[in-house]
Amino acid sequence: MDKIHLKSPKNWINDPNGFIYYKGKYHLFYQHFPYEPRWGTMHWGHAVSNDLVSWEHKDIALFPSKSADRNGCFSGSAVEYDGKMYIYYTGVRYLTENPEDIHTCPGDNFASSQMMLISGDGESFDNMNQKSTVVEPVEDPSIGCRSHTRDPKVWRGKNAWYMVVGSTSGEKGRLLFYRSADLVNWEYVNYALRDDLGRMWECPDYFEVDGAQVLMVSPMGISERRYHDLSVCMTVDFDEERCEMKIPDKYNMLDYGLDLYAPQSTTDAAGRRVLVAWARMPEPDDRGRNGMFCIPRIVNVKNGHIYFSPHPDIEKQFSRRIRDISAADKAGYCVSLDIKDGEHVDIGGYMIERAGQKIRADRSKVFRNHNEIRTVFETPEISGNIHLDIYVDENLIETYINNGEYVLSNIVYDLKKYVRADGDCEIYTLAGGKENEKI
Question: Is 89 helix (H, G, I), strand (E, B) or coil?
């Protein structure tokens, strides 16, 4: 069982899928290649939790079983209707197959369909009899791409169900919107785009929170450095009836550590908007697992700015104050402090500093010889005082700045067992164990 951070049960995971609070439990599915710690023919892994803290891995939920998904069950979402769980995902069929590696497709010559599977209980998934194709591959290149149209996110609107998928046309990313009255029959309505933001848009997620309309999307090819594909967020203007979305020029990175990708959100038991995202790992951890997810984060919008803060169920777990990290739970610890200009925090070789009104991080001492992947990061300008809450896992450090005004998260390896700060700090770990200690 995983605690705090959901990690690969073995081998490879990437995008979170089908994130939903259903019949009193949180269900989180994920892209999974169960055979090796590398990308391959996609299945849907499955984990459940009562509280977003402890996760139990279940059996594989989706696997290739139909002609339309014979080469992979790719990313998608889930909704509840009439007590049943409706899962939507992208089925991929290779038109050309690499004879030396059947898990890859030369020249991106494949077809993508949007598919559905209905589960009556969220525990059993009949891949042979309950799957169907609900949106055929796009044939009109002026609308989208036959190959690169994927990752359906479905939600209930005012008077109908809506689906948004990521696509591309003319090497420019776009969104395609569909509408349905019954979750089975879907009609294409409209598209939205911004010409200067990547060549293809993956994993779109649209929702409303705090009176604002929010779009999260992962454009491909917006960086010259690996990783080339990054996740962004922005407030938009969406007309549901016409499915017209005005996408602004201004956007923020989902996370300024730039390792997180493919976020997906749902509402929690209290109706709050919560998201998770894939933390990309360039190589497996010491147990051969490649891929993990960030802490579940609450989304709020204040004065037009999108905040991402640790879910309250996570925060309350870190209630035992410790003197030294040798007393920390194996699930990690949290370092909390106010930081002044010029001060540093050293988390086992991972360096955080305040430089004027920005927070900078340097993981070069705890990152294994991946010179093509950036190791130094910084936030935009932050006004006023700066407070940090730094959640530390053996392979992922998440720095929440001013309770989520910005977040900076990085994958690390071979982290040393110490914390050194120029100023005063407090260290907390999970409840239990010894009595609280004053630092």
Answer: strand
Residue type, 170: G
**Tokens, residue 111:** 């077809």
For residues 363 and 351, what is the distance between their CA atoms, to the nearest angstrom? 6
Placement of tokens 């490649």 in the chain: 290
Which segments within 257-386 are labelled E, that is strand? 260-267, 273-279, 289-290, 292-293, 297-302, 305-310, 320-321, 333-338, 344-347, 350-355, 358-362, 376-378
- pLDDT of residue 383 exceeding 80: yes
Per-residue pLDDT at 226: 76
CATH code that applies to domain 2-282: 2.115.10.20
Domain ranges of the chain: 2-282, 318-429
CA 218, 222, 228, 234 dihedral sign is: negative
Helix (H, G, I), strand (E, B) or coil at 325: helix
How far is residue 392 from each of residues 207, 262, 328, 329, 398, measured CA to CA in Å?
Answer: 29, 21, 10, 11, 7
Burial (CB < 10 A; 0-12, 13-18, 19+), residue 359, is buried
Superfamily of domain 318-429: Exo-inulinase; domain 1 (2.60.120.560)
What size, in residues, is the chain? 439
Res 435: pLDDT: 42
Nearest Cα to 372, choosing from 280, 282, 274? 282
